[in-house]
Amino acid sequence: MGAATTEVMDSFYGHLIASPVPEFVPPFFVRFARVFSSEGVLVNLRGERFTQEWLGDHVNCQATVGQPEGRALLVIDEKTHQGAAKAPIAKGLDAYDTLADSRDVGARIVTAPDLESIADLVTAWGYDGHRIAEAVAEHGREAEVSGARPLTAAPYHAMEVRPAITFTQGGLRIDTSARVLDESGKPIDGLFAAGADAGGMYNGGYAGGLSMSAVLGLRAAEAIAGDRAVS
């Protein structure tokens, strides 16, 4: 229909999830999410850090997409395990041991008293595990400046993660009434977009998908009602 799209079409919102898992269907989205990655250290297959983890799991998720084979290793310590990894991700949701639960279904998770032992265990997964201690030390130095917490509480846990996309941040270009625009900036008659179908609300960050749906849905409804009243 000639609709224009916004910029940053390669940007998305999502979370890192356990890997591998037998199935990944809506009831399991929260169950396998690793929203606590902001309190750990992420390394790629080469054992290299590739993001500032404390910026948030949704940022870590986007960064992981660009890594070899689209997978990474998340290393946390026991303090994170007993804290964020066991806490509900939102008020009112169940709390459970996400590491134990994911291990039970076959996800790759190992626990060891020190980082050197972790290195030996993850090598079989294709990771250069012997660089993990260096990566954790690098994270610790940066954490002192950023205000993040370094990993110091043994035992340590390492788990494989992969990115999962909730919705794209790019999408159809719209006006303030949620009318879809063509390449020249003119509204396409009778075509509206709300929620994740509309792009350009935010790029790279996150501002809430449901709020986009609610606000733009109402604006579209008002515009449709107004058009009908005029006609």
Describe this structure in a few short sentences.
The chain is of the alpha+beta class. The chain has six helices and seven strands, in the order ββαβααβααβββα. Strands 1, 2, 3, 4 and 5 form a five-stranded antiparallel sheet that branches. A two-stranded antiparallel ribbon has the order 6-7.
Please provide a written account of the structure:
The chain has 231 residues and is of the alpha+beta class. It has two domains: 12-166, Flavocytochrome C3, Chain A, domain 1; 169-230, no CATH class. It contains six helices and seven strands; from the N terminus they run ββαβααβααβββα. The strands form two sheets. Strands 1, 2, 3, 4 and 5 form a five-stranded antiparallel sheet that branches. A hairpin with a 5-residue loop joins strand 6 and strand 7 (187-192). It is elongated, with a radius of gyration of 21 Å.
Q: How much strand?
A: 15-25%
Structural class based on helices, strands and sheet pairing: alpha+beta
SSE order: EEHEHHEHHEEEH
Radius of gyration: 21 Å
Relative helix content: 25-40%
Amino-to-carboxy terminus distance: 23 Å
Biggest sheet features: 5 strands, antiparallel
Tally of DSSP helical segments: 6
CATH superfamily of the largest domain: Succinate dehydrogenase/fumarate reductase flavoprotein, catalytic domain
Q: Tell me the quaternary state.
A: single chain
The overall average pLDDT, rounded, is: 92
Total number of domains:
2
Which regions have little confidence, pLDDT < 50, spanning 5+ residues? Answer: none
**CATH class call of the largest domain:** Alpha Beta
- The CATH topology label of the largest domain is Flavocytochrome C3, Chain A, domain 1
CATH arch. level architecture of the largest domain: Alpha-Beta Complex
Query: What's the overall geometry?
Result: elongated
Total number of strands = 7
